[in-house]
């Protein structure tokens, strides 16, 4: 199906229809191990630990069970304070330190003693795990990029965070944090393949803002090469069909091209040649062979994240007037739509192949990803018209495009996905 990236309304409509057809086709590839008959999923609460229950309002532990220990506490988030979203969101996550600890110690034998104090804080705040059960996800299309050390205040451990929002490409996540390379200056190299934008009439403030925005996208696209490479290995580990494996490698090649295009634009606006520094993998790249885990991550990174990225690129293209920028955005919007389609096809196949465990993981991933708060618009300091002409419309446009993408593309495709799985 031909999609017109420059017409956001047509793009969203055609994109949704294409995803539905791809989902139905991929669902027939799976050989169902455990078919289920219900697409409306109700998630059960996790079982409590043996012994005492959770802490009460006064911080005391629950009563100990029959000679058992108090139940373990989850990371309980009590407040989230986030600023406006443009390309980055900054805020604070505060966690009850008592919930990080265990419950009280039960009595010995017989009737079991009263549970000990389960909510008393002792010691420094522990590092915050962004993948923790009760740590809220950033808005759809956003990823934690940094989380600071915990500071104890007002009875809670509070952590400053930065979440990267918008942009294109599939994020390379390590423990729910998006990892990218740093930028560096270059004399010559292969990371500047974009046509040159027209810089006439752009003030210094606008050029600096455009350089920063396109550099950020360049680094995310560069990281997407690693993300798709890992995804290909993981698909091999779970026995995915050959055509999906080939599509993942093709997507990685697309991301190399996208990165070069974005680095080219960033370099033109900055007036200096920019490229990625060596990528800091840390010596180990973890690869999962757990189909449920992989399907859940594909939901968040691909079905939600890349779908939003494709729709956003279409919206950026509709507002851009610079010929060089339009050519870059047209290529990115079309390619990201195909990349998102791969994620939806993979999840459809995984649902038919993996049975109940995958169904529950996928349903939970959609529930968590779509329940996250929507990003808010942020004011633009530089000339709004100049930024929009070069592919950077204001925060209100971006936030609205994400809302429309969720309503018109992601939600209908999710329903088709779960309905096809239930019918199987």
TrEMBL record:
- Where is the region Disordered? 44-80
Asked if the keyword Transit peptide belongs to this entry, the reply reads no
Bias (Gly residues) occurs at: 50-75
Entry keywords, A to Z? Signal
Q: Where is the signal peptide?
A: 1-39
User: Which Gene3D superfamilies does this UniProt record tie to the protein?
Assistant: Ribonucleotide Reductase, subunit A
Q: Name one GO molecular function term.
A: oxidoreductase activity
Entry-linked InterPro entries: Ferritin-like_SF, RNR-like
This one is known as Ferritin-like domain-containing protein
Organism field: Sorangium cellulosum So0157-2
